[in-house]
Amino acid sequence: xxxxxxxxxxxxxxxxxxxxxxxxxxxxxxxxxxxxxxxxxxxxxxxxxxxxxxxxxxxxxxxxxxxxxxxxxxxxxxxxxxxxxxxxxxxxxxxxxxxxxxxxxxxxxxxxxxxxxxxxxxxxxxxxxxxxxxxxxxxxxxxxxxxxxxxxxxxxxxxxxxxxxxxxxxxxxxxxxxxxxxxxxxxxxxxxxxxxxxxxxxxxxxxxxxxxxxxxxxxxxxxxxxxxxxxxxxxxxxxxxxxxxxxxxxxxxxxxxxxxxxxxxxxxxxxxxxxxxxxxxxxxxxxxxxxxxxxxxxxxxxxxxxxxxxxxxxxxxxxxxxxxxxxxxxxxxxxxxxxxxxxxxxxxxxxxxxxxxxxxxxxxxxxxxxxxxxxxxxxxxxxxxxxxxxxxxxxxxxxxxxxxxxxxxxxxxx
Length: 414
Known about the structure:
By secondary structure, the chain is an alpha/beta fold. The protein contains 16 helices and twelve strands. The strands form three sheets. Strands 1, 2, 5, 6 and 7 form a five-stranded mixed sheet that branches. The chain has a five-stranded mixed sheet with strand order 10-9-8-11-12, with helices on both faces. Strands 3-4 form a two-stranded antiparallel sheet.
């Protein structure tokens, strides 16, 4: 077998294309291998519109970066014709080894996309010895094209939550299909609040879904989210996930601790002790800090007792039991904190729960939670940390889709 035949086999060339020349330049660093592909004079080419075999009108010399040949950078050059189709006129053909408009071969892009599932774009770009800007163009193309083909006709239950995208309170809101067992992300958009729900509703309609078919939405207690959910998903039941109830009171406890620490010296390790459960993985010093807080009647200890009482509600075996326990919890918490000004964050949390108690109790009727979304958020934030952040929300959203959306076969399907 001749060298040209080996290269042609590796490139997967088909008629009328064939490898006509190869040249290795060792004067450059790294060394450069150039492969020239061409067709015999008078060959016919498929019209890019109808596929009919047509004569070439003219040619344009084009070059693509290919996978390295051992340690050598490899480039493919070919004269690409425009066909003269009787029906569609003069059109530039798309070569079988590269997509239209790309300066990389399909094999190069396939390897790049495989690497990008496991590492940041900048790291993959260094490994492949290209600029990260050029690699981002590849990622944007394949992910956006795959997401455009997403079928949402069967969407009936969804969860939404925001995750931080950049500094200065920049967020991205993520929507997941709760009935998907794997890779459930179906939409992500910059910002948080009612506008994000409206954007998702439009996206849902564009991909075959119907807002009237959505029967459950799992959310936090954001007023903007809830009002927009009621507007756009009128047939759905709103469920407030228990995680957000606990998170609400955990933040309130921390606010009380920080305010009280400005007035009086707190026991060491208080900060982390009050964020844990009483029966959690407390260190000896954290346990001692809780005992001291309670013995000296710190306001932080009062706030912590309210938070701990939540677990009694969560253990309710039935919906009716949860309603009864929630009502008793609210009475107990209000009596415990009284009118102390420093406990205002806890009072605000209690009022929030009172306002959304129906949606909280709905958790006992639901088979869904957004625990999976919280887990995915951890993956997204870890990816952002490895990349040392993203300059644009579009970049972060693209990585979210690459990690969590049902687009595993995006290279095959596009």
